[in-house]
Amino acid sequence: MWEDYRINGANFSAGEDVEKPEMREQQLRKEAEIFGLWNPEATARKLGFGVENTDGEDEEDDWLAEIIQDVGEDPEPQEIQNLGQAVAAETEWFPYPSKMMFLLDTLDNLPRLRVSSSLMRVFLWVLKEARCKDVPSFDHLRRVQKQLRTQCGTPSIPCKSPLGNVFFMNDPRAIVAKDWANPTTRKLLHVYPEIPEDGIIREIWHAEKWRKNMDLDILSPMYDAGVRHYYVNEVARLRDGKLVIPIRWITFRGRLYADAFSVSFDDQDLATVNDACTTLICAEDLTENYHDLEQAGKIPKWGASTMDAGHSSRMPNPKRKIAAGRPMYSSFVNYFADDVSGNRSKSWNKHWNAYMTHQNLPRKVLQQEFHVHFISTSPNATVSEQFLEFKAAVEETHTDPVEVRDESGNATCFCIYCNAGPSDNPMQSEISSHIGGKGNCFCRKCRVGGTQKEKATDEGYHALFEVSIFSNIEYIILELEKQVKLACSGVIEPVKDLQTETGVKDVYTQFWINGLILRFKEMRKDDPNRSVEEIQKELVQWTVENRDSIYSGFLTTKGFDPTKDTPIEILHTILLGIIKYVWHITHTPWSAEQKQTYAIRLQSTSIDGLSIHPIRSAYIMQYAGSLIGRQLKTLAQTNIFHIHGLVTDDQFMAWKAAGELSALLWVPEIRNLGQYRQDLQVAVANVLDIFATIDPSKIMTKIKYHLLVHADEDVVQFGPLIGVATEDFESFNGVFRFCSILSNHLAPSRDIALQLGDQEGLKHRLTGGWWPVGEDGKWERAGSGVRHFMAEHPILQKLLGWTEPNSTKPGEFKLVSVKRGEGPRKTFTLRSTSAAQAINFGFYEPESVWNKCSSVISESLDECLLGSWVFAASPTAADSSIISGRISDILVDSDKVVLVVLELFQILGTRDETFGMPVLVRRDSEITFSIVLAKNIKFKFNVQHDCNSAKCEASGQRLRMQERVESDQIEKYIIHQPLDRFFINMHAFHNSHLLRATLPRELVTPILLFPERQAKHCELAANLREKQASR
User: Fold this and answer.
1) Cis ω before 172 (30° cut-off from 0)
2) Could you give the CA distance from residue 461 to residue 542 in angstroms, rounded to a whole number?
3) Is-contact 376 354, C-beta < 8 A?
4) Predicted model pTM
5) Each residue of 686-720: pLDDT tens digit?
6) E strands present in 283-389
7) How far apart are CA 40 and CA 26, in angstroms?
8) What DSSP line would sit under 361-402, residue for residue?
9) Which PANTHER family does this one have (predicted)?
10) Is the CB of residue 353 less than 8 Å from the CB of residue 167?
C-alpha cells in the first residue's frame, strides 16, 4: 500500500513529476526540438488533453455570431485552393500571404486594443462588403495564425505541477531567444559585467552582484577571439609568456578584460595558482588557450596546494564541451509574480501571474511595455508551482544551451539564469519561504523581530531600526527540513511553534507538511499496533527520497538567493507605504475648509521640471483615501510646499523626510556610491525616526518601515532601485486583463498564454527577428513590408508599447507657432528683446535679426520652455562655472545659432530653515540677464515660490473650466506676491541626480534629525510600553 503512495501518492503525491532528475532531463531532451522548445501537442496528449481541448475556439457573443453566420462567410474558392501552400520567403509580406492578412493579424494582436472573435467577424464582413482585396474568411485567418504560431511564435506548454494543478506556460527559452535572434535587440545585449569608465552606476551590470558577488559559474564563461575561445577556470598564456587563469570577464572602456589568477613556479618547476588576489588582464593580450597549451604539452605540473584547491580538476571547463565550438553566453531574467484579478470590474477573479524581463538589455529598454514578457497564469496553480516548470525549462539550457544565429549566419548559444525576483512585499515573502509581515520575525531578509513584548524592550525596539543577522538559503532549507521532520511525527503544533519562532514558512512545502500529518494519522488508524517511531521513520525516509518535490524551486535555483535577490520595491514600500501612511494621517483630521485650502495650494504647484501628470487637486482631495501610485508620486514631490499651517510639526518633518528619501531612491544613476550610501542611510534613519515619533508602534507591525534599512545593501547589489521597480510589471497587468476577459473562461491559462504568445511572435516579426525553419539550419525573417511597417507608422509603435530612441539633440529648438491669418513670421532685432538687458549684450550685434522660439533642448535632453529654470555654463567666467536662472527668451538666427536669455538668480549659501532646501534670490536684489548659447544649457529643475514667506493667498477668482469651456462656476486661485524668493525643489524626482552633482554638498546632504538615535529609540520604547500598560 505504501508503495502506491511512494509512486503516485494519494493526498500528497507529486504525480508524474516525482521522477529522478536524470529521468526528467531525458524526458525534456526527448521532447525538445529546434531552439530547445517543447512540442505542445505531444505534451498535451501526455497530460491527457485532446488536441481539440488545447486548440478550442474562444467563447463568442452568441447573438452576434449567429448574425454573421446568417450573412454567410464561407471561404472563397481561391482560399481553399491556397490552403496549405507555403508563402515564398522573398515576398514583401512574408510570412503572410498578403498585406491584408498581415494587417488583420496585427489588429488581432494589439495588447491594449483586443478584438474578440465576434468583432473580428464583423470587421471581415465590412471589408468584404467594401470589396477590399484579399479579405480572408474568419477560419482562414485563424489557420494562418496557427501556422505562424508553429513557424515563428512562442510555444505555450501544457504543464502539471507536483500538486496536480494544470496550467500553460509560454516557453522562456523561446522568449529570450527572440532577443538574441533579433538585430534590433541583439546589439543592445550586455553579456559581461562592466566597469563604467566614468564611475557612474546606471545598469545591473555596473552593480556588485554582477561585478563581484555572482557565482562565477553562471556568468558568461568565455571570450570569443575568433579562432580561439578562452574559458574561465582554464590556464592560458599572455603575450609576455606568463600564465594566468581568468575567472571573470569584464568590459572596461569598450574593451574586454578579465579578473585573473596569476601562476607562479617554484624551484622544482611546480606551478602554483595565486588565488589570494586577482589581477586585471586585457583579453587581447591572450595568445594561447588551454587546448593550445595542451596540444603543445605546455600544461604545467601543478603543486600540492593548487591540486588541493581543485583548480586542476576544473580544467578544461565543462562548459567548453557543452558549447560544442559555439560562442556561449549567459542571459539573466527577472521573474515577477503577483496575484491579479482577471476582471476589469471590481469583481475579484484571482489569478497567479508570472512575467519576466531580459536583464541583459539596458534599463531604458526594459522600461518599455514591449519588453515585458508573459510567462504563465493560473487561477489554481500558485506561483511556487508555476516557478517549478519555469525552473525546469531554464535549467535545461544549462546542459543543452539554446542556439541562435545572427544575420551573418554565425551560431551562438546561451544559458538562462534567474537574476532577481521583484514583486510586492507579500509575494516576495512567499518567494523567500517567509511567514509574512504579520509574523513575529517579520523580515524576509534578516532575523530581526521577536514577540510583541520583546520588540517593546529598549534593545528589541532599537534593533528594528537596524539590519540584524542576514538570512540565507542554507538557513531557510535547514529550518524547513526541521519542520518536515516534525510533521512526520503526526502533530502540527510543534511545526507551528517552529514557524512562529523562526519566521520560516513555505506555502508550497506546507502542502506536503499537511499531507505527512494526515498520512501519519491514516497509518496509525490502519495499523494501531505500529509504533510511532516506526511510522515516523518510514515517513522520514519518504521525504528523503522525494526531497526535490517537497521544497520550493525558489530555494534550489542556481544563482538565485531569495533572501538577497528580492530587492525592496519602491512602488509598494515607498509610495504605497510611507507616502500613503503620512498622507492618511495628514488629511483625515482636516475640516472642509482646510481641505479646500490645501486643494487650492496644490493646484498652484509649478510642475515644469517635475515628472508628473497635470495635477487635479480637486480629484485628489475628493478621493484622498484611495489614491494610486501616480497620485502619491505627485504628493511625494510637492506636498511639503502646501501643508504649512495645516499639519503638526512632526507631520511636517515626516513629509520633509519622506520627500527627501523618495528623491534619493528615484535616481537613474549613482555618481558616487560612497556619498550616495551615506545620504541614503541618513535619509532612511530620518524617515524611521520621525515616523516612530508620530506612532512608536507602527515599526513593530508594518514591515515596510523596517525594510527600508535594507535599501542600502540592495543598491549596492543591483544599482539604482528604479531598475528593479515593478511599475512596468504592474502596468502589464492591464494587457493580461484584456486577454482574460476574452478567454472562454473554461481554459483561461491556455487562452491567455496562446494570445500573449501570439503577441510575442508579432513583435518579433515586426522588428526584423530571425527564426529557424526545419532542421537544415536555415533561418528566415519577415519580408521588407512587415519589417519596415512599424517604422513607417509610429501609431503602431505606441499601440505595441515600443518607444524609439530619443533622436533629439542638445541645442535643437522649436519656433513659436504662427497663428493662422497672422501673415509671415515676425522677426526681432536683438536690441528689442530681453537680451538688451543682458550683462554680456555687448558681445553681440544689437541690430542682428532673430526669430523667437518656444523651447530648446538642453544637454540632458530636457525640453526647456520659456519660464523654465535651468543651470547653464557661465558665458563670462573663465573657469566654466555654473549659473542658474529662469529662461526669458529663446532666439535663433538665420545661421541656426540659438541664444537663451536667462534671468539670473543666485543660490544662497545656507538652506532654508523651515524647508531645508536651497534658496534662489536675485543678485543684489536687482533684475539681471545673461545671454547663453543653447548648447551650454545643462538641465532644467523644478522651483517653487516661497509662498509661506510672501504670504501668498487665494485672492484670485476665475471661471472654472468644464468640458474645455468656461463655466459659470467661480474658483479661487493663488496670486503670488512680489517676493522673488524661490526654493529649488529637492524632492523632485526629475534630474535629482544632476541637482546633487551640481549643488554644493552642504546644501543637499541629509542631516540626522536625532543624532543620538539609540537614546531616542529607548525613549520611544518607554513611551510605547507606557501606552501598552495603560490599555
Assistant:
1) no
2) 43
3) yes
4) 0.89
5) 999 999 999 999 999 899 999 999 999 999 999 99
6) 286-288, 328-341, 350-358, 373-378
7) 17
8) S-HHHHTSGGG-EEEEEESSS-HHHHHHHHHHHHHHHHHSPE
9) IP13529P, NOTOCHORD-RELATED PROTEIN
10) no
